[in-house]
Amino acid sequence: MVNSFNASTVTLSDLNLIEASAGTGKTFTLAEIYCRLILEQDLTVEQILVVTFTRAATEELRSRLREKLVNTRNELIEEADERSLLARQKLNLAIQSFDEAAVFTMHGFCQRVLGDFAFESGLAFDLEVIRDDHALLQAAVDDFWRRHITTADHKLVQYLLAKKQSPEALLESIRSLLGKPYLHYLPIRDVDIEKEHQQAKIQFEKLKMLWNVEQDIIRATLQDRTLLNGVKYGTSPVQDGLESIDDLLSCDDVPLKLFHGFERFTLTKLQDALKKDQQLPELAFWEASEQLQESVEHVQAAQALQYQHLRYDLLIELLTTLKKEKQQQRVQSNDDLLLNLEGVLEGSGGDWLVARLRQQYPAALIDEFQDTDPVQYASFSRIYANSSLPVFLVGDPKQAIYSFRGADVFTYLSAKKSTQHEHTLGTNWRSHPDLVYAVNTILNSKEKPFIYEDIPFHPVKASRENKSILTTLNSNSALQFLWLDSSEPMGKKEMTQLAADGTADEIALLLNQANSCEAMLLEKKAEKPIPVSGGDIAILVRTNNQAHIVQQCLQMRGINSVQQGRDNVFSSKEALMLERVLFAISEPQNQRLITVALSTELWGLDAYELYELQQNEQEWSAQLDLFYDLHQLWLKHGFMRAFRHLMNKISGQQQLLKLTGGERKLTNLLHLSELIQTQCSRQNYGMEKVLHWISSRRKSIDPNDESGQLRLESDEQLVTIITIHKSKGLEYPIVFCPFLWGINYKPPNQEVISFHDRDDDYRGHVAFSEPSLSIARESIALEERAEDLRLLYVALTRARERCFISWGHVKGAIGSALFSLLHPELVKQDRGEMLAQVRSLAAGSKGTISLDIIEKKEPVIYKGVKSNKRKFAAKKFKRFIHQPWRIGSFSALTGSHDAEVPDYDSPASNETVVTLEANNAAARDRFTFPRGAHAGTCLHAIFEHWDFASDDHDAMQVLVSRTLLQYGFDELWTKAVCGWVKEVIATSLNNTSGQSFFKLADLSQDKRLDELSFYFPVTGLTVDSLQKCLLPLLTAESPLAQVISQLKFSSLSGFMKGFIDLVYESQGRFYIVDYKSNWLGMSQGAYQQDVLEQAMIAHDYPLQYLIYSLALHRYLRLRLSDYDPDVHLGGAYYLFIRGMKPNWDQSGIFFDKPKVEVLDALDHCLQGLTND
């Protein structure tokens, strides 16, 4: 029996169910009962179990309960009697100890019980709760795949490959079934796969035999235009079909799948294509083709069943193996918390634990009970059934919209039958009476509006006074239909845009009226009305795409908005963007990853801009150096330090905010960075684990993950765009519903379907094969339509004052939830009938519903808020900013940035990039090899990783080929580059310091040091100090003097940093080698000494080798006890490798050895010392 409910007088005992329609004061009721339990039954806050289903709801409920205690205490302050005094003491104690209140999420309650009674439960004391067990699941599935799939019959393997199946896809197909032991798996039909294969093989051999006999007649028949319809049997498809069947029947075995168009050879298709009064030649081939087609389809169906059996076997295996694996790793997931508690309660010590829990929590309030599931309800039922303890289950089946999270409304309905007392909250305290009446009118227009008899609709009363809180110039009806008119049925895309534009126009009108104080709202407890603001308005959507379209329409009209949905931040584009950037940071030497990162919205470079950047040596080096520095920062100081440095360095915040939807993008990116930092802190994740974690989270979105739900991008008073799911429990003065005409149900095409069987008291079942799948699809269709109606109810009940609904003659609207309520008698869409019925509904609504015809028009532009605020300007800065310490380099002294990474070459300023046809093998040589920094990087990598002393030609080919591919160059270059490298290392390096006839090919691995990096401190280095220090020691015509004379750079204090391509030792001397791939010309003459000297000066290389020589000078001084620069310092080679050949003498080779006094002078200058 259903009783009207009064929280102040209800008996505090037994199992009670309170059904609370939207706006009827559910939370107020819970708080009232909570307060009564403390005052009347002398319970403490630790003894009243309060459970809801999300962390956000838990915090909200906790706040409301405490507020109720405080308000009740304050009301009793004026009372002086003994009873009031005692009540105040109880309330004061409850308020003071409220931090200990037993307010939990369902998972939090399970964790508390299992932790408090770990010994009795038989579980480990220190089980870690992991939010995401996807990695464990995937490992178990991978192992199953290895044992069962890779060893299976090759035909099944071919079938799975053709279906693009994988271990990941296998897990995805059964993931939603895990953690649900209450599901009943329906039997899978047995299959004789060998029999089906054999039958198909017989038909295949028969068809081959008939083809050999009848193929001439077959060809003539198919090509006879007088016999067959030319559209269905055109020249081209017939010719393709004949070629395909020739190929097919030349195979030894029956194929897994017949070619596209095979059906043209079947009797049914041919007869359908016969022209009038024509007769098809009677050939056995036609019927045999049809039989083969059927046989192959039977084989495919049998293989599908075979795979279904494997899915079932995997599910059964995971029930045991996964539990053992988690026990070994001492972890449990959220689902495990529920299952473990249920297992303990149903186990041998269950009665003891039930008694202890009843003693610990002698009263319970369960909020949002419509979101429960069989496991959760089983635990509560086990604890409190037949106990006579006061237990109140509060929910509304009309708002059960979270089936995607595992919520099961049928469990609620089952529990409803088991409760001892059933109550309803029948008065709406939220919405204007006219809006309450309007919603009642719509829902009352159809018998059983929520489909199931156990979810009835009872009209609610309105408690508010019937006076206008919101006034506007236009219609003041509480519920307004915006009819988007069109003589023909509109397509979904057109209707979406019209609805978004219409909504944006209405909002612009409202806000423009508000600017003139013509749209006013009297807020609660306000003395006088105030103009409507964007914060008073919400737009309800179903999808991200709808939200994006509405947001664009608002932006076009000058209206700012914020977006809030149930979508997960890991499914956003920003998650993919951040993943790509982090991969580049993790491998700063991988320029391909860096290129991908630079193409993201954080940099926003297009293909042409990326190419231009890569051709500029200094700018490209700066980008490479940034990723190197970020890598080091992450290693030394953690993720967040590196992330903040990145955002500051590239002005990431400004870069994103200037994009459309920039606030949303920035909010998502910062949200992701916080989640990563949290993971790093809690799990001590390093770089590799973070990358794996974010990749797995992106691939497997957990719908129950509250931490990943999208955050609001702004807290200003802006229009809110929010999903209907996310809006549940919220309220807004004005609500727009532009997309309720949409069809949200999609027929399931999964190969495994879970559903509720109406013939088995709506118990959960799982179908794997026919005929169960057909039954499941029919049942799921009904369940989805019912949930869409419940979602519609949530949308209609979010508004306090006014609700706008876009409606119209749009294709497919007949399948929507709202259509079933507005037009319950229509069996097909008709514009006139639909419009007339909405008009009739409005006419009979006592003025609470209106209909406005909306036609296409120019957008209404929001005029903005007039402001009388003073204009402010930044104060002029007059103080001095000290130069910060920074890391400098050769590039910093000669270019525009402070970065240096291994020096890779750019083309000279007069170079023109030459393209080469792939098949022009004769032109493939050192001179035609691609130019620029990217090509230089590739060649440097080859020289760095090749053992010069090796004569293993095959190994060189492997290295060169792999490196070329890694940097995006054609493998056809392999032969030319191998020969080129061999010629370079075979060229004698002669110099003035005594070395002659030495070749790199003579150099063993133990005598070389590649990519030597160095740092040394620099103090107060300026152009003036460097020139004063060095120029007196140099001849004016020397290359080094010419470079230093023209230097321009900012003062540097900090560190000098660089990389030396190669340092090697020969005959006791140490030499520097720098490889240069600069293109100077197409012949040997372009690489002679006078040309090299000009190239050296043009690129400021003399200063580079001076810095490198100083670095080597310092290095050797620390490493060699008897170091003497005149003896040990050999000099610097700059090898312009395009000009080097053994028979070209010293072509392409530049050598210099700076004087020791020059090195010492530079050393003093960098330290801020003078020679005075």
Which characteristics define this entry?
alpha/beta, 7-stranded parallel beta sheet, 32 strands
Biggest pleated-sheet summary = 7 strands, parallel
Poorly predicted runs are: 896-902, 906-921
- The largest sheet has its strands arranged as 1-10-2-9-8-3-4
Query: What is the 3D form?
Result: globular
Quaternary state, please? single chain
In what range is the share of β-strand residues? 5-15%
Helicity level, as a percent range?
40-55%
Tell me how many strands there are.
32
Distinct helical segment count = 41
Alpha-carbon distance between the termini?
Answer: 105 Å
Which structural class do you get from the secondary structure elements? alpha/beta
Instruction: Return Rg in Å.
Output: 39 Å
What's the mean pLDDT score? 87
Structural commentary:
Residues 896-902 and 906-921 have low confidence and may be disordered. The chain contains 41 helices and 32 strands. Helix 6 (134-148) crosses helix 12 and helix 33 packs antiparallel against helix 34 (953-966). The protein is an alpha/beta fold. The strands form 8 sheets. It has a 7-stranded parallel sheet. Strands 18-19-17-20-23-14-24 form a 7-stranded parallel sheet, sandwiched between helices. Strands 25, 28, 29, 30, 31 and 32 form a 6-stranded mixed sheet that branches. The chain is globular, with a radius of gyration of 39 Å.
Short description:
The chain has 41 helices and 32 strands. The chain is α/β, with parallel strands linked by helices and 1172 residues long.
